[in-house]
Amino acid sequence: QVQLVESGGGLVQPGGSLRLSCTASETIFSLYAKGWYRQAPGKQRELVATFTATGSTNYADSIKGRFTISRDNAKNTMYLQMNSLKPEDTAVYYCIMGLYWGQGTQVTVSS
User: Fold this and answer.
1) Strand, helix or coil at 53?
2) Count of CB atoms within 10 A of residue 46's CB?
3) Which of 1, 63, 83, 101 measures 20 to 30 Å from 69, CA to CA?
4) Residue 28: its pLDDT value, please?
5) Quick one: which of 53, 56, 84, 80 has its CA closest to 68?
């Protein structure tokens, strides 16, 4: 059974950092485009950062220069390093690989 397991969310003060992780079944990690989305209360889910199938990266304008997407192929894991966090970054963050979604992890930025 295909699974994406997320971790790393939590409560952080403005200006702080968090690193999200998404670990996948080996059978899907190497084959699909992958990335991170987020959904804030009352808003639609939006793209945060993605890898394309060729390995290039795309970032939402709102997080450029603050967030970095990366991956460790040996660990079948994708990361989202989030720095200089702002209250407007508060959301549930989801990883996606192909058609498969993670369970979501809550990120709350508040003083």
Assistant:
1) coil
2) 12
3) 1
4) 76
5) 80
- The long-range contacts involving 104-109, CB below 8 angstroms and separated by at least 24 positions, are 104/6, 104/39, 105/6, 105/7, 105/8, 105/9, 105/20, 106/9, 106/10, 107/9, 107/10, 107/12, 107/18, 107/20, 107/38, 107/82, 108/10, 108/11, 108/12, 109/12, 109/13, 109/14, 109/16, 109/85
Question: What is the enclosing helix (H) or strand (E) of 26?
Answer: helix 26-29
Q: What is the DSSP letter of 87?
A: G
> Which amino acid is residue 48, in one-letter code?
V
Q: Name which residue leads in pLDDT, 29 or 38.
A: 38
pLDDT at 70: 95
Length of the chain: 111
Coil, strand or helix: which one is 81? strand
